[in-house]
Fold this sequence. Notes:
Layout: H1 21-24, H2 37-50, H3 54-83, H4 89-104
Amino acid sequence: MPQSKANPPKRGRGAALGKSKSSRRKPGARYSVGLPSALATEVERYAETADASMSKAIAALVRIGLEAQASRKREFFKKLKENLAQDNPQEQDRLVDEFRNLILGR
């Protein structure tokens, strides 16, 4: 599709330097990812629900996942600190299993 001629840029604070407002921000890093088809379908549904592009949907889901992982890690150390002084071997085994589930999500 041929590009249409745009209106000349308006002169503003950055115009004298040849900078527009959009060029002042650093663009985010760009990555290409391959998703299994089932996961891609889920992401597409999420993007439609959130009324976002696939790229923004993927970024949001990654952010949500990283926040959840950090939350699990904080919860792990909180429980570990609370239960560190216990000498009951059965309780320690139960806590190890609970911690494994918290961290690994199993």
